Amino acid sequence: MRVAVIGTGYVGLVVGACLAETGRNVICVDIDEVRIARLRNGEIPIFEPGVEALVKRNLGAGRLSFTTDTVDAVRRSEVIFLAVPTPSDEDGSADLKHVLEAARQVAAGINGYKIIVDKSTVPVGTAARVRELIAGLTDQPFDVVSHPEFLKEGAAVEDFMKPDRIIIGCDNPRAEKVMEDLYAPFTRTGYRIIKMRVESAELTKYTANALLATRISFMNEIARLCEKVGADVGEVRLGIGSDRRIGSKFLFPGMGFGGSCFPKDLRALNHIGRDCGVELKMVRATIEANEAQKRFIPAKIRAHFAGELKGLKFAVWGLTFKANTDDMRESPVLPVLDMLLEAGAVVNAYDPQGMENCRRLYGDRVRLTADCFAALKDADALVVATEWNEFRRPDLERMKRLMRGPVVFDGRNLFDPAQMKGLGFTYYGVGTV
User: Which of the four, 113, 118, 252, 290, has the lowest number of CB atoms within 10 Å?
Assistant: First the structure.
């Protein structure tokens, strides 16, 4: 079975490389000629643990190839994945222009029965739109399948190879059988294929992300309450997380969620509800709570320095929205950087993988340093914004010697408050005492 994957971002590249690893012949397609040239040389344009080794191994074995020619890739493939971006439009809805343009290209290449797989996160009704568009451009037989991805940036390869579930939304047994065969290598050890109607599959991804985001925002609100009543959110988290009905995942408070999925997916789900006349109050509340949480650390900074930030020097550890990625899209650190720069502060920042993306966003307005300690030299305060492992157990004495003012705003609760205060730091966490 030959597979084409249209789009070589975080999702498409992982899908293509992982399917090739099972012995499939995979053609990855992208309109970016520079990106494709790099990939043909084994150069990975994103940071995602494990992807580089997969790409190089399968390139060498001849199972994985890269092209800018969508039509040719479609002609040579049986299954075509659409893994293109679906960013938020101005009204919060998912912008489907990339999906629909990919569908037009697919239609131009159909030369026999094909299965078109919506892998991008798309609103309910997208498969029907794709089907209608393609049917208007070709009389060749095809099916459209909704197959949402559940890949976490930073652990995407592991998630693909060992999925909790494989969801297939399909209305034709023929296409269903092909998808089952495609994913047979992943189900031999018990991982489940869950079959459902197309519309249910389309809604499942949005619902999952909304529920996870709600847990994060709920804990962030509890963290703010903890600070007012003298409780410690870490203790509260352990207390509730030990309840098997609740579990311990997605209960860590912080600076708010970001990235390419949660924010845009909640906005899209909220828009779907409005279009259908259904008021999704909890979804809207989660969006609002997250926006409020992103202002939490900036407010603490302004309060500590009485609003006088001009000329002060801030070290920032972490730029990406989470660890183990280079992705800064809607990162919670962005409101912090914007506030500091607008107030006239000097910002020295370090991130193991996010430096180049920060440079694209801020140019030389944010000074990027060689390592985390270089960022601390003569700093009036440190902001910890991402939970990279190398930030968890630093040399605290060295930190204090380097800083002009030993003030720490720990947006990820990486440090022990009692230890920090015992060493003479002024320490601010999220929901800690």
Answer: 113
